[in-house]
């Protein structure tokens, strides 16, 4: 392979990487916009499980870059999910738990 062919290959790779980065940025911007529009309260456990699912799928896909960071994030998310699961009260809905926490905050602030 001569120098011109090597440069062309590098240029093609740069275009692919830039295109992928732009697509990823667009997806993230849309997700942020949707999150800002949503008026539903954030359920930390649901969000942690969703994030865990995404990280797990990315790791299974064998994306070679950033694997150590993904592995660390995976471990952190598993710990977060377990912590949040242990905090939830069986048989009591998340809405009820949120209402109780709000009532407790209001009572504490009125003292």
Describe the structure.
There is one protein chain. With 111 residues, the chain is an all-alpha fold. It starts with a helix and ends with a helix.
Write the layout of secondary structure elements.
Layout: H1 3-37, H2 44-61, H3 67-87, H4 94-110
Helix pairs in contact: 2-3
**Tally of helical segments:** 4
Find the count of extended strands (DSSP E, 2+ residues). 0
Uncertain ranges: none
Question: Helix amount, in percent?
Answer: over 70%
Biggest beta sheet summary:
none
Secondary structure class reads: mainly alpha
Strand content: under 5%
> What is the mean predicted local confidence, pLDDT?
79
What is the radius of gyration computed over CA atoms, rounded to a whole number of angstroms?
A: 22 Å
State the order of secondary-structure elements, H for helix, E for strand.
Answer: HHHH
Protein name: Terminase small subunit
Organism: Saxibacter everestensis
Short description:
By secondary structure, the chain is mainly α. The protein has 4 helices and no strands.
């Amino acid at each position: 392979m001569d120098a011109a062919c090597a440069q062309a290959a590098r240029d093609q790779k740069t275009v692919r990487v830039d295109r992928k980065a732009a697509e990823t940025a667009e997806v993230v911007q849309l997700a942020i916009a949707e999150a800002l529009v949503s008026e539903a309260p954030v359920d930390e456990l649901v969000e942690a499980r969703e994030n865990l699912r995404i990280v797990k799928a990315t790791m299974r896909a064998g994306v070679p870059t950033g694997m150590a960071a993904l592995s660390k994030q995976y471990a952190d998310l598993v710990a977060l999910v377990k912590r949040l699961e242990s905090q939830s009260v069986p048989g009591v809905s998340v809405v009820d738990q949120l209402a109780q926490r709000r009532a407790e905050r209001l009572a504490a602030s009125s003292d």
